[in-house]
Amino acid sequence: MKMAILTRDGTLYSCKRLRDAAEERGHQVQMIDPLSCYMNINSDSAAVHYRGEPLGHFDAVIPRIGTATTFYGTAVLRQFEMLGSYPLNESVAITRARDKLRSLQLLAREGIDMPITGFASSPDDTQDVIAMVGGAPLVVKLVEGTQGIGVVLAETRQAAESVIDAFRGLNAHILVQEFIKEAQGRDIRCLVIGNEVVASIEREAKEGDFRSNLHRGGKAHAVTITDKEREIAVKAASTLGLEIAGVDILRANRGPLVMEVNASPGLEGIEGTTGLDIASMMIHWVEAHACPGYRLKTGG
């Protein structure tokens, strides 16, 4: 099979692992920077061009699109979808997941538990929004933030008002969210492929921080999750239409709460912690869905 990996940086761990896993299975793989693509959007001659040359057909496209390039990256992915390439996560599912507000609304509609979350535009509503999520301490999040960037813990009502006003002064869209104290700076990352959680780790924030992201110095270890946590992770990914997802769960006194669903989960932390070959699992999924007869023909 011929595969493309859409990425701005092919040297990243996840991209290299996916390329190596695919090539070990005998596939041709090309790393493609989506920002270097341009498109002919025409019913008769639709095409994707790359650095001056038209690209041929790809059986499958694996999107590793960063948040900063979501708009253009998903536009390129849509073009590949129009041309008949199988996407490992559809463009519409990625944009759905990247919009934190929309994704939380969709999860709530499906009855998936999450921290109480408020959203408002007018400064006149600040007091009510703070009360809505249970008061301080509370978490303020940028709707467009990622990897813990744009996430602030406000420990008092006055601090919460100051942070909210500061973000509003920058014309930033923010969510105000209940702080789950009993989680103690820990969360669980579940790696979902299809309808299965194939790996799970517990991440712990570094001392003095409440954000458990490994990119921010957090620690991780493999963890056994409950049937309820497994069920909620798979349902969250399915609700957003994602075939591959990193679902972040908080263990609260009232049960597991979905904090976020990541459409392009990194592999380094979870592979390094569990010792599992997640990249090969993803390639096997692509084989089964982009070309169902491939594994039968190769005996794989």
Assign an overall shape: globular
Strand order of the largest sheet: 14-13-12-15-16
Please report which band the strand proportion falls in: under 5%, 5-15%, 15-25%, 25-35%, 35-45% or over 45%.
25-35%
What gap, in angstroms, lies between the N and C termini? 13 Å
Got a strand count?
A: 16
What percentage of residues falls in helices of 4 or more residues? 25-40%
Q: Rg, please?
A: 20 Å
SS-based class: alpha+beta
Uncertain segments of ≥5 residues (pLDDT<50)? none
Average the pLDDT over all residues and give the rounded result: 90
Oligomer: single chain
H/I helix tally: 10
Return the string of H and E elements: EHEEEEEHEHHEHEEHEEEEHEEHHH
Describe the structure in your own words.
This protein is of the alpha+beta class and 300 residues long. The chain has helices spanning 13-24, 70-82, 91-98, 100-109, 126-132, 157-169, 227-239, 268-274, 278-290, 294-298; strands spanning 2-6, 28-32, 37-40, 47-50, 53-54, 60-63, 86-87, 117-118, 138-142, 151-154, 174-178, 186-193, 196-204, 219-222, 244-252, 255-262. The chain has a 5-stranded antiparallel β-sheet with strand order 14-13-12-15-16, with helices on both faces. Strands 2-1-6-7 form a 4-stranded parallel β-sheet, sandwiched between helices. It has a 4-stranded antiparallel β-sheet with strand order 8-11-9-10, covered by helices on one side. Strand 4 and strand 5 (53-54) form a beta hairpin. Helix 1 (13-24) packs across helix 9 (278-290) and helix 2 packs antiparallel against helix 3 (91-98). The longest helix is centred in the first third of the chain and has 13 residues, at 70-82. The chain is globular and about 55 Å long. The model has no long low-confidence stretch (mean pLDDT 90).
